[in-house]
């Protein structure tokens, strides 16, 4: 069985509902078993500032799907949940990115894994660090804990734990 890490993000309300829907659809897929769910973080938008804050989280899943078939499932879920690609890095109901797939380095026309920008993104590394601190990213040959430590002091302020009733910590 293959192990994949998938990042989820939403900054169009209802944000939590969009995350829940994506998780439900992944769980319903017969070739995907969600093994771990990170906490949810509320995060400042990166790349295109003039948009609302995101909810971000990361899942660990076992799957018999190959990487491109897993991407198909992720993109179908994005479509089903009304994702529109209008502004690069802009607002979205839901975004699903494949962060890692086993310890493979994958480069095809449709897919780069590990995700090429993940090691600089607090909105990815904070939740990934919660569920997989010892994961080694094949692209840079570094542990997630080390990557998170490198950016935590500069970018840690842009992410905070989120809870439904608004009492999330720092
Ligand atoms: N690891 C990956 N996970 C998901 N999509 C990927 C990956 N690598 C390449 N892609 C490609 O990226 C394309 C653009 O994806 P998308 O529009 O969701 O980008 P984005 O999420 O806005 O930006 P970013 O990739 O920086 O997070 C997709 O069509 C997909 O083929
Ligand atoms: N905070 C945050 N910023 C982003 C996000 C995201 O999920 N969270 N996704 C982006 C493109 O994938 C660009 N910027």
UniProtKB/TrEMBL annotation:
Record's catalysed reaction(s): 6-hydroxymethyl-7,8-dihydropterin + ATP = (7,8-dihydropterin-6-yl)methyl diphosphate + AMP + H(+)
InterPro entries named in the record: Hppk, Hppk_sf
Domain 7,8-dihydro-6-hydroxymethylpterin-pyrophosphokinase: 5-133
A single GO molecular function term of this UniProt record: 2-amino-4-hydroxy-6-hydroxymethyldihydropteridine diphosphokinase activity
EC primary class: transferase
Pfam families: HPPK
Keyword field: ATP-binding, Folate biosynthesis, Kinase, Nucleotide-binding, Transferase
PANTHER family xref list: 2-AMINO-4-HYDROXY-6-HYDROXYMETHYLDIHYDROPTERIDINE PYROPHOSPHOKINASE
Protein's name according to its UniProt entry: 2-amino-4-hydroxy-6-hydroxymethyldihydropteridine diphosphokinase
Organism this protein belongs to: Tigheibacillus jepli
């Amino acid at each position: 069985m293959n192990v994949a890490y998938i990042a989820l993000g939403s900054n169009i309300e209802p944000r939590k509902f969009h995350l829940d829907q994506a998780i439900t659809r992944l769980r319903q897929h017969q070739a995907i078993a969600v093994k771990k769910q990170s906490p949810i973080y509320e995060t400042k938008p990166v790349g295109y500032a003039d948009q609302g804050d995101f909810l971000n989280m990361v899942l660990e899943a076992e799957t018999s799907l190959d990487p491109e078939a897993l991407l198909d499932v992720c993109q179908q879920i994005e479509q089903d949940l009304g994702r529109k690609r209008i502004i690069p890095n802009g607002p979205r109901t839901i975004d699903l990115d494949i962060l890692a797939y086993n310890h493979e380095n994958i480069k095809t026309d449709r897919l780069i894994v590990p995700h090429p920008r993940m090691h600089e993104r607090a909105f990815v590394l904070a939740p990934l660090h919660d569920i997989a601190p010892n994961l080694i990213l094949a692209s840079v040959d570094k542990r997630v804990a080390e990557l998170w430590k490198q950016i935590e002091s500069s970018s840690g302020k842009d992410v905070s734990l989120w809870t439904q009733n608004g009492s999330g910590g720092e």
